[in-house]
Amino acid sequence: MSMKPIVAVSTPMGAGAISIVRLSGDGALDIARKVFSCKQNIEPRKVILGTFNYNGIKEKCLLVYFKAPNSYTGEDIVEFQCHGGELLTREVLKALIDNGASLAQNGEFTKRAFLNGKVSLDSAEGVIDVINAGTEAELKAGYNLMSGKLLNMVKGLQDTLTDELASIDMTLDYPEHDDEGETLLHTGKVLEDIEIKLKEILSTAETGKLIKSGVNAIILGKPNVGKSSLLNALLGEDRAIVTDIAGTTRDTITETISYKDIKINFIDTAGVHDSTNLVEKIGIDRTKKALDSADIVLLMLDSSSELSTEDKELLKLTENKKRIILLNKMDKKKALDLPLENILISAKDGINIDKVKEAIYNTFASGKIDTSGLILTNVRHIEALKNALEICIKAKDACKNQTADIVSFMLKELWAELGKITGETETESIIDAIFSKFCLGK
């Protein structure tokens, strides 16, 4: 596929040791030769030392040339490795644009790799996941996707479907030589195997959600019980304002940490109590809304005082939710004897804070995350596989009571639904939306 050359800075802008400017497309090497001189021939996959010289800007830098189709995009690629520095990098970029290249759009290099058959759509999405990974588990899941584990599974299923379609088409073309009933009986058994495989991979989606989105842990309690102090202790920094004045927090605050191989999203909330203050009431309403979407509740009680009316209401409000009860202010004399499992902490002094993190982890992830295999973390993939499973079950049933031509149509529909994952049958608007999520220069 012939495409005009594009250029972008592939490293973060700012002062640094090295800055890489990437050029890809037809004529990329011709453009490079207009601004770069060296004493040796430019050969593919060799690092060349030379001088970048354009409009009075000179720079001693390295050039690497990747000849099509053996490159990331499948096109000719030239990369300039310059000294880091925002002004110098911008001048190199401007020079290449002045000499015929166009500024690349977000993700355009990887989109060209997809269009040139170098990567599948799901593998490209794995690239995004690797770049954005915040935990080791997220990184491994992204790598497995990028390296083609989902692609190989989908291709295997599509190849199986293609074989069945060939058998059914033979039956339709030569009914005198092939028994339709036997062919559909065999296809039904094949679809049963595909159904099992689809259910197996879909069973990883819950773990994938945990890896990708993390656990939403809401910190709940009456005013001035120490919720903001707990958030600061969990984060290891002063993120929330802490005072002795009740009602300091009047909105939800969300902060994320990585703990072992998952993310935990802590949501500090306004204290739940009766209030006539309009701003406080809005904050309390948001707290109750956040509670509905929380995966687990960190319910804070004051260990130095008896249960208040608000405490009792919160215990009742959260009794059917996953929760961890925290008895705060252990540095004071204990006055609360609660007949429920709890963790005694001091949010102010940071005592037993790791026990809180460990309790959250054990509730959701202990022994459950195995990143050696494929784990579904992408909503688009999950939806496509759910749709494929639904079609598969209907097609399996159709093998018992429908004609071969109807089953053939359903198999093609199943093949196309699986093709959405790899990009073979996905719409252009979805493909554009996916690559727009990439950073500039990737």
Order of adjacent strands in the largest pleated sheet? 3-4-5-6-2-1-7
Shape: flat
Q: By CATH's scheme, which homologous superfamily of the largest domain applies?
A: P-loop containing nucleotide triphosphate hydrolases
Total domain count:
3
Distance between the termini: 19 Å
What is the helix fraction of residues, given as a range? 40-55%
Helices and strands, in N-to-C order? EEHEEEEHEHHHHHHEHEEHEHEEHHHH
pLDDT averaged over residues: 88
Helix count from the secondary structure assignment: 15
Instruction: Provide the low-confidence segments as ranges.
Output: 240-250, 273-283
Structural class: alpha/beta
Q: Tally of extended strands? A: 13
CATH class of the largest domain: Alpha Beta
CATH topology of the largest domain: Rossmann fold
Description:
By secondary structure, the chain is α/β, with parallel strands linked by helices. It has three domains: 99 residues, 2-Layer Sandwich (Gyrase A, domain 2), CATH 3.30.1360; 144 residues, tRNA modification GTPase MnmE domain 2 (Four Helix Bundle (Hemerythrin (Met), subunit A)), CATH 1.20.120.430; 153 residues, Rossmann fold, CATH 3.40.50. The chain has 15 helices and 13 strands. The strands form two sheets. It has a seven-stranded mixed sheet with strand order 3-4-5-6-2-1-7. It has a six-stranded mixed sheet with strand order 9-10-8-11-12-13, with helices on both faces. A hairpin with a 2-residue loop joins strand 4 and strand 5. Helix 4 runs antiparallel to helix 5 and helix 7 packs antiparallel against helix 13. The protein is flat and about 80 Å long. It starts with 5 loop residues before the first strand and ends in a 7-residue tail after the last helix.
